[in-house]
Amino acid sequence: MKTLFAPALLSLALAACASNTSTDPQQGAAAGTTAAGTAADASADIKLDAYHWRLTSAQDASGKAIAVLAPNPQRPLQLDFKGDRVSVSGGCNGANGRYTRDAKGLTFGDMAQTLMACQDRGLMELDTAVGERLRGTLPAKIEGGDAPSLLLTAANGDQLRFEGAPTPATRYGGEGKTVFFEVAAQRAPCSHPLIPNMRCLQVRERSYDANGVAAKTDAAWQPLYQEIEGYEHQAGVRNVLRVKQYDIKNPPADASSVAYVLDMVVESEVVAK
């Protein structure tokens, strides 16, 4: 397997400003109408499935913050749209259901939810609070920009505001390739000309048949000279990961041409020392 590393990616967005100095009321009104129409068109062009939508604020009809929906940066409540389905994560349980989008807003169908019980009662209450609000047709206001926003108004007047973070497919310009990595329980020293005393993840690729049965492997462990985005390695724990591999367009000469993003943890095992 090819061993590579990738530095942090940096993106810079530039915005242009235009001013209108006309004092003609009719001209000004026309300009305002054009600007509003342009903004509406821009919001209509925003694809919901191009972003992870993370809750940034929740308030009731009087403008008071809703305590049970207070955003948690460490475990954000998140909406993900794909095709005609939407999934909800960040609480105790995950939920998934159908949705439609039209000029009136977003219409949510009944959600199917996992049935785990969590010791954190706040997460259980969060599941209930979200489920009560994401029902039926909710007026939706979508605004573009570097960080697009989605404002949903529930039937009781509560307003939930979400901020869009580009998905890996959006950032890297493609759906990516699915690969399976087995990650050894311990990192190991690896030689790197720019990073002294580097310790790399030890990985080997795994494969599965049509029935999902893993093929046995005795392949040697290989150092991975880069991190897997979204994966936090715990020493002493062996994992099998489903990973998305994305090609990086025009990478720097000393950087990797691919990026790895965690899709899901397939298997975990605590390995005795």
UniProtKB/TrEMBL annotation:
Superkingdom to which the source organism belongs: Bacteria
Keywords: Signal
Presence of the UniProt keyword Transcription in the record: no
Record-linked InterPro entries: DUF306_Meta_HslJ (IPR005184), DUF4377 (IPR025485), HslJ-like_sf (IPR038670), Hsp_HslJ-like (IPR053147)
Any Pfam family: DUF4377
All copies of domain DUF306, residue ranges: 49-162
Transmembrane spans: none
Residues spanning the signal sequence: 1-18
Boundaries of every DUF4377 domain copy: 182-267
UniProt name for this protein: DUF4377 domain-containing protein
Organism of origin: Lysobacter silvisoli
